[in-house]
Amino acid sequence: VLIVEPVMPQENKFASLYEYWCTIKGPNVMPDAKQFSPARLKGILTHLVIIERCSYSEGFGLRLCGSSIERHVGRALTGTSFSDLFAYSAKTRGSDGMHRDFDALFSAPAGLVGERAWFSGEETHVCSFIFLPLGGDGACKKFVGQLEFQPRLSLTETETFDGFGDMLHLEVIDLGQPLAGQMLQMPRAKLAA
User: Fold this and answer.
1) Where are the alpha helices (DSSP H) in 3-108?
2) What angle do CA 113, 149, 71 make, to 5 degrees?
3) Who has greater pLDDT, 97 or 150?
4) Are the beta carbons of 116 and 163 closer than 8 angstroms?
5) What is the tens place of the pLDDT at every residue in 98-119?
6) Helix, strand, or coil here: 178?
7) Which residues contact 5 (CB under 8 A, 6 or more apart)?
8) What is the CA 160 to chain-centroid distance, rounded?
9) CA–CA separation, 63 and 191 (whole Å)
10) Whole-angstrom distance, CA of residue 177 vs CA of residue 43
11) Bridge pairing between strands 123-136 and 153-154
């Protein structure tokens, strides 16, 4: 069971992914990527992403992006850069501090759970998420994530959105391995079996 404090609005939606991830990892720090089968998570499949290091994008690509996520963002994302997920429009890249976070996470695996908001055109997007590492040959190879979007918020011409690309909440899921970079300063998610 995943318990996150302070309580995030979508936390219970992450239980299926987290419990499956724990089951296939067994006593290891993370499961082997070959063991992970998205089809085993039919109830949340449309909310899953798989992130990998790649040469076709600026460091990280979306190997898989569920249809609910693509529908919410308004464009196909499978096979694109991870930055496209949080881009402000189809023609721009998101300036994304999460790139730094994932760079650190691939070298010192841990999970992330949080909530992020960003502005696109005249709409505000708010997304709760969890990202968990998948390994192979003793190293982190990919991350599986689940993203849960709140309904879009429209802004009037007189309103502003101060949280442009802001993390509203972010915690690291410590897997008992040394943490790197800014992960050392992040609050820890509380996990319970």
Assistant:
1) 15-25, 67-73, 97-107
2) 130
3) 150
4) no
5) 667 777 888 889 998 988 876 6
6) coil
7) 190
8) 26
9) 27
10) 31
11) antiparallel
Q: Stretch 178-187: mean pLDDT, rounded?
A: 81
Distance CA 85, CA 114 (A): 15
State which amino acid sits at residue 148.
E
Residue range 61-107, pLDDT digits in tens: 899 999 999 988 888 999 888 877 766 544 444 445 666 777 788 88
Q: Which backbone phi and psi does 30 adopt, to 5 degrees? A: -150, 155
User: Is the full-model pTM beyond 0.85?
Assistant: no
Angle CA 133–21–8, to nearest 5: 85
Q: Strand 139-149 vs strand 48-54: parallel, antiparallel, or unpaired?
A: antiparallel
The predicted model gives 152-168 an average pLDDT of 50
Which residue, among 141, 145, 185, 173, has the nearest Cα to 52 in the 3D structure? 141
Q: How far apart are CA 55 and CA 34, in angstroms?
A: 21
- The string of DSSP letters for 94-163 reads ---HHHHHHHHHHHS--EEEEEEEEEETTEEEEEEEEEEEEEETTEEEEEEEEEEEPPPEE--TT---S-
Tokens of 122: 């005249």
C-alpha distances in Å from residue 22, one per residue of 142, 168, 174: 16, 26, 13
